[in-house]
Amino acid sequence: MTPPDTATGVLQNAAAEPARGAVARFLDSWPPAVLAALAWIGGMVFVALFADSLAPYPYTALDLRARLSPPVFIGGDWRHILGSDELGRDVLSRLIVSIRMSVLIAFGATVISAVLGTSLGLLAAHFRGRIEQVVLALVDFQASMPFLIIALSVLAFFGNALPLFIALMGFHGWERYARIARGLTIAANEQGYANAVRQLGAGAARIYGLHVLPNIASTLIVTMTLTFPEIILLESGLSFLGLGVQPPMTSLGNMVGYGREYITRAPWIMLSPATAIVLTTLSISLVGDWLRDRLDPTLR
Amino acid sequence: MLRYLLSRLLRAALTIVAVVTFAFVVLRLSGDPALLIMSVDAPPEAIDAFRAAWGLDRPLWEQYLRYFLQVAQGNLGQSMRDGRPALTVVLERVPETLALTLPAFATKLLIGIPAGVYAALNRNRLADRLTMVLSVAGFTVPSFVLALLLVLIFAVNLGWLPSGGAESWRHAILPVITLGLSGAAILARFTRSAMLEVLGQPYIRAASAKGLPWRRVITDHALPNAAIPTVTIIGFMVGSLVAGAVVVESVFSWPGVGRLLVVAVANRDLAIVQTILLLVAFTMVCANLVVDMLYGWIDPRLRTARTQGA
């Protein structure tokens, strides 16, 4: 056996080292928990988009001969994989449709909240003076009241149309975007780049839309990952109380609220939507924390 | 300091006015309560009489001014259901709610703060990881799910505790645990990050370098400084003592303010909802004021510095 050529050995080591390092580096920036969370979120979005084709039955279809049948893993049969409820409705189908409803509401509300809050924050930072004081007073008002109480009073007195419900949820958390957008924009206006573009004659829309907003976007996105799970929790809480999404429509909170009546006889009605809520909020929080560490050193 | 307090007081007053206006606008413009309370086929004279009795036939601005004056006098109208003064109906329920939220508040402080401090002092060790996992679970699990799980385990399967009602102190255990655990999780996370922030400061290194025992560095330097942000979140928790248990009270059929609110909202009982809204706003505003004063006491920098934007 000839002694190994030192140069080749070094080369081999050099080749092996980056390979091992690459895996480690990949896991460093993409921890397994975050990958799992991203996969779950992807799954939820997929389910929400293709709910109609995925659900084995229409979510209101009754199967009176198979009422309260247990899920397949505790002795049920394959016709109702996650069991059925008191009216024989398939829990899996209802779960899929509920996921779509909850994701739709949370997504719509997050977008409304982000757009509203960011716009008000930009307005405050651009005009300063009286307009800024008004925005700050609104922010104070919103931040000083528990949103659940405000939502409850508005909801019951305006009824429960779905678009209105989404709009109402969109008022949750706007004050955070407003605060952040105002603070960062004021800071940005004092920095060179905003001034430079202004000197070149760009209008306000161009400065804020093309220059300031992209620079503060990462912080705003991190804020979205904070409000999104809160909106899911708020929506499901209200629906659980019977004051959110109204039957025959269903959301994850509705299912838990309905399943509560059968907690002794058929706990599976309540457990599967509850699991979906918990895993979704957990995943988004994990991804949010990870994004915050990656994107935004100022929030750490 | 005086200037600081005055600006805080002004803000508090403005918030109260905003809440009163909000309550009035939302609750009065959203529909005709006469038609909701009376049946649709009630005789028109009866509906008119109802409107006149509740002042619903006056112009809106007049209703608003009258409402404002009444609120200022502590007269918040009568419950439309049983005709008793709304304030009495609501205040009756406050002790019931406090019977849940005060022990829960103590639980939050007793678990949350030590857990957060301990986790920060043992950063990245097993205890820290475990605390953080539990704390994330604590605020991603909605309170109604936690409540139902506790019912499933301790009431349905083990049969140790009642699943609802308010006959004895044993009925309070599960609701208090539900409220306490989720609050403790939030507080632990908050305390931990406040502590970590402080522990990275140069004055901690200086105190430790001059030979002060580590225990005293923690008690004399780290804890007081970490208390500043933690007080904010505790203040918010104090403010929600009155109505922080809406969902939990509903799950456990606990006859407190939260459950009253849910029932009143379902029945469109305007006076009750308004009263609770104002009561909550008032508690929140008071709690915030106390927090602001505590800041002045804990953080000497605020006493001298002028208030900034906030």
Secondary structure: elements and pairs:
The complex is a heterodimer of chains A (300) and B (310).
Chain A: H1 6-29, H2 32-49, H3 51-54, H4 91-127, H5 129-144, H6 147-158, H7 162-169, H8 174-189, H9 192-199, H10 204-240, H11 252-259, H12 268-295
Helix pairs in contact in A: 2-4, 2-12, 4-5, 4-7, 4-8, 4-10, 4-11, 4-12, 5-8, 6-7, 8-10, 9-10, 10-11, 10-12, 11-12
Chain B: H1 2-29, H2 33-37, H3 44-54, H4 60-72, H5 86-121, H6 126-140, H7 143-157, H8 170-199, H9 202-209, H10 214-239, H11 246-251, H12 257-267, H13 270-298, H14 300-304
Describe the structure in your own words:
- The complex is a heterodimer of chains A (300) and B (310).
- Chain A is mainly α and 300 residues long.
- Helices cover 72% and strands 0% of the residues of chain A.
- Chain A has helices spanning 6-29, 32-49, 51-54, 91-127, 129-144, 147-158, 162-169, 174-189, 192-199, 204-240, 252-259, 268-295.
- The radius of gyration of chain A is 25 Å and the shape is globular.
- The N and C termini of chain A lie far apart (56 Å).
- By secondary structure, chain B is mainly alpha-helical.
- Chain B has two domains: 2-72, no CATH class; 89-309, MetI-like fold (Orthogonal Bundle), CATH 1.10.3720.10.
- Chain B has helices at residues 2-29, 33-37, 44-54, 60-72, 86-121, 126-140, 143-157, 170-199, 202-209, 214-239, 246-251, 257-267, 270-298, 300-304.
- In chain B, helix 5 (86-121) runs parallel beside helix 13, helix 7 (143-157) packs across helix 8 (170-199) and helix 9 (202-209) packs antiparallel against helix 10 (214-239).
- Chain A binds chain B through residues 136-137, 140-141, 144-146, 148-150, 152-159, 229, 233, 236-237, 240-243, 253, 256-257, 260, 263-264, 267, 270, 274, 277-278, 281-282, 285-286, and chain B through 11, 14-15, 18-19, 22-23, 26-27, 30-31, 136-137, 139-145, 148-149, 151-152, 156, 239-240, 243-244, 246-247, 250-251, 261-262, 265-266, 268, 270, 273, 276-277, 280-281, 284-285, 288, 309.
